[in-house]
Design a protein that fits this description.
Mean pLDDT of chain A: 92
Low-confidence stretches of chain A: none
Helix content of chain A: 40-55%
Pfam family, one (chains A, B, C, D): Glutaminase
Strand content of chain A: 5-15%
CATH superfamily of chain A: DD-peptidase/beta-lactamase superfamily
Shape of chain A: globular
Protein name (chains A, B, C, D): Glutaminase
Number of helices of chain A: 13
Keywords (chains A, B, C, D): Acetylation, Hydrolase
Number of domains of chain A: 1
GO molecular function (chains A, B, C, D): glutaminase activity
Order of helices and strands of chain A: HEHEEEHHHHHHHEHEEHHEEEEH
Subunit structure (chains A, B, C, D): Homotetramer.
Oligomer: homotetramer
Largest sheet of chain A: 5 strands, antiparallel
CATH topology of chain A: Beta-lactamase
Amino acid sequence: MVEKSINYPGIFDEIAAKLPGIANHGQVASYIPELANVDPDKFGMHLINYQGEHFSLGASDEKFSIQSIAKVLALTLAYSAEEETLWQRVGVEPSGNPFNSLVQLEYEQGIPRNPFINAGALLVSDILVSHLKAPKEDLLAFTRKLCGREDIHFNAKVAESEKRTSYNNAALINLMKSYGNIKNDIDVVLDFYFNLCSIEMTCRELAQSFAFLANYGVNPLNNEQVVSASKAKRINAIMQLCGFYDEAGEFSFKVGLPGKSGVGGGVIAVYPGKFSIALWSPKLNSKGNSYKAIEVLEFLTTKTQLSIF
Amino acid sequence: MVEKSINYPGIFDEIAAKLPGIANHGQVASYIPELANVDPDKFGMHLINYQGEHFSLGASDEKFSIQSIAKVLALTLAYSAEEETLWQRVGVEPSGNPFNSLVQLEYEQGIPRNPFINAGALLVSDILVSHLKAPKEDLLAFTRKLCGREDIHFNAKVAESEKRTSYNNAALINLMKSYGNIKNDIDVVLDFYFNLCSIEMTCRELAQSFAFLANYGVNPLNNEQVVSASKAKRINAIMQLCGFYDEAGEFSFKVGLPGKSGVGGGVIAVYPGKFSIALWSPKLNSKGNSYKAIEVLEFLTTKTQLSIF
Amino acid sequence: MVEKSINYPGIFDEIAAKLPGIANHGQVASYIPELANVDPDKFGMHLINYQGEHFSLGASDEKFSIQSIAKVLALTLAYSAEEETLWQRVGVEPSGNPFNSLVQLEYEQGIPRNPFINAGALLVSDILVSHLKAPKEDLLAFTRKLCGREDIHFNAKVAESEKRTSYNNAALINLMKSYGNIKNDIDVVLDFYFNLCSIEMTCRELAQSFAFLANYGVNPLNNEQVVSASKAKRINAIMQLCGFYDEAGEFSFKVGLPGKSGVGGGVIAVYPGKFSIALWSPKLNSKGNSYKAIEVLEFLTTKTQLSIF
Amino acid sequence: MVEKSINYPGIFDEIAAKLPGIANHGQVASYIPELANVDPDKFGMHLINYQGEHFSLGASDEKFSIQSIAKVLALTLAYSAEEETLWQRVGVEPSGNPFNSLVQLEYEQGIPRNPFINAGALLVSDILVSHLKAPKEDLLAFTRKLCGREDIHFNAKVAESEKRTSYNNAALINLMKSYGNIKNDIDVVLDFYFNLCSIEMTCRELAQSFAFLANYGVNPLNNEQVVSASKAKRINAIMQLCGFYDEAGEFSFKVGLPGKSGVGGGVIAVYPGKFSIALWSPKLNSKGNSYKAIEVLEFLTTKTQLSIF
């Protein structure tokens, strides 16, 4: 068996050459105007390896709505706060169903299948509202420290638009409340949740924020242990199995890295011990994941055999 | 970020010391006499690393019924025969349901969710019956070559017992046939399937048979490319997401390696680029996976941070 | 084939003699204090036949919370307002599931299976909020006219308690809103719905209110056509198939009359062309229907062959 | 309230005049050649009232495949044999799902929802195989006596064709067997079931066979009590709630009589105390019930208010 070595600049050059030929299929998310109005042809990617080298392509320094990717940050905070008792209130199994399914939640009596389906992220939000003194500010402070940048904010318009259209999330949280699995006031939790999903970042900031998951829990910027190595492993495992809704298998199969997507077109992926990478391309495939970001990641891992598998 | 190195002998010594203190909870599979009569206290494990070193503990040279673990071997053969068209007839997504669920199969109109739930393995069996001249003999020959041992056989009594009790598999295959997704005679496919699940191996043979999946598709015994590196990656990804029925998330979360279990109490896991490991302990947890084998693997990967994540 | 004749006084005497020997199994509804505090041993029944004769037993003149029985009155009003277009927004099929199931509602994309499951009654409420000038007052006026009594009111405490505990209904209506099948403000519809379910009546008033459904749509008190004979037939058919949640088959099987129950322990049943009958006994069986009321009705229809079947 | 009287000859004249104007939508069942080759424009109807008068229209003396209608006859026999213990092995609730759904059967652990979905009829067949000395012959003898005609037979070609295509029924019975709810050999039960569904009758024979259900359990031809009045009521109740698959609500709503359909295009309906009526028109609506037969029945009951409701 042979250890793999990675020629990062060469790979980025190859991808840069390849990019114009990769189709940009799919549809930009249209359920709120702030997402619908994004330029569908935007593309950015940024990789940080374990030596601390940075590689980027395209609009890697442009802010976009990271949406559900922020659920991983919320999970990290909640896991630190609750330790292993967290798993009494939310599972770690793939859902096998669309991300906003009430069916499973009802069948399993208000215990969300995992922290990345909407119900699970609402549950995690409830936990943070219980634990944090100033939940929204504390979340921003945590995120800023992870990526070493002060310039991380919620987008109030996005949060507001989500709130106006999100009857399905209201259904989910009410159902969990009916089973006693939501402890705080529903409106407070929903407000936190919609702000969480409205965070904006660049690919560079995103890759930096997730570097601790590629580094056994240690933030490489300041060598602080964000979470234990065991917790980092477990968060990665959950991303691997649940990070792409009902396309988790397809993503694992094609890309072979733990990762998470958002309907803003962002994708984060980490290779433990090697690198973290963020991509952004707004058009989504039928499962709600960025079409082009996944294509590029598949090319990256297949051509270069850069996969955990 | 730091590269990990592994002290295999030290880990095995530590596990050996730890073993007497690990509880042996659960129940031996009892639906056929051949499994019910196995000594519940048997334990074996065998690891082969990329340098070709072997490490073992307990009854690692005793044959046991590998059961569903053989589905990975069948998938490997079928994937080679059908290439990517295989995925038109079987999916790669976790099931989110028990391994023998008809519900999902009906909901998805006869396309099994993945190749490791029973329906998926029956579908793979149908493909092999279509492709192989002498399906049962060819499967044995393939397995023997993988592990470099001639002494690999079906257990006719096990196959016969399975056949007598397996109304659920008959339901599954009839349902798929009703959707046109089974091409061969039902009895022929079932006969192949029941034989597939009756293969007997030792931990050593099992670890050797799966070494190609830890070695980017190459059989380290003879340096033959069993499947391409890309296919090996994909088979590992499917094991990661679907290898432990509705406990796949739990196994990933705890152990963090792609693997597969069988109701005979066997578990195989691979760390691509590093090692393959087989364990055997007959008592099963409530999800049908070996209780003790998973405990030991979790200890191995958590203590030593030997995980792909 | 022989026409049946009915000796009402004889039947009531027989039931009166039988009553002490009929067990009073089950549990009083306990999710709100107003229901939990009702005397569990209360029993009343009242029958009005097509000659306008009245027969009663027990606490037939005592008010109780008719709860879901009021859904039939709401349906009658909505059906009159919308005519057959009503059925584009709500179905007429039995649910095959508990009355508050989100599963089916999601599977069928926000179209409730029938008007008597909670989702369906919320939908009917939305229609009435659209059509009526003063929805709550108009509903009371309609009900008062049906039973010829001014003394019909909502119970504000009950409505308030329901509102405080009813996260499941909030989940249902939000889900329907997410599918675009709720037109009005959610809080307004919920307020109407909780008031609807808080109506209090006596058995006598209830039997009188439903007499038009036993009389081909004509209110026997004033000979007004409340709904057409065809609509009355259809409302009865829906009661027959959907009036007892997932015990509709059992109720039809045992009692053989169209009817509707409420968690307050009330049951209404009609025999078209013959009579309407209301019963009240607060203890509920495991399906949420009055245990004793159904026992007595079964005795009535089985012994005397008073069934539509 | 007013007693209804029926002018049968007048109604039949009106229907005869109306018939040419009633569309003949839908598709003839095509899964076996024997059904596919039937003339799609055939139409027959036959009514027998409680005075023993006969009224007919069209091809009322032509044999057709009664298919699932025969399930009512099988249920009648099984109910007589098992009495109320029958309901421990099969339910009486509407399915809320297509007639051949495995989902519900698995969810409810091998207990079919009711005797008229395929699983339920297979279960009833199993019971008859247990109870009858010569199941197929005894079933024919029972049916012949009901309609007073010797000329009632299975169609061997139909039974054979069903057997060749019916993987779904094989799935259902294997699933029930896996739950221990099938006692006899699967092939024997399936053979009985396929013969049961192959019975051929004319509308006249069919109406006569079901007259006992319109006559409180008494066969009007010979005044024999086929089943008790209570059992007749219960069978009618089950027909009302479960006789038209997932269109039971729609049929009750439109027609308002207990009835049963078959994919051969036959429909039987009974008005207890008044009449039994059989119709035949081969083209089926999307739910698998005869389009034209239901239209005509709806006209009959709506125009003349001939409904139990």
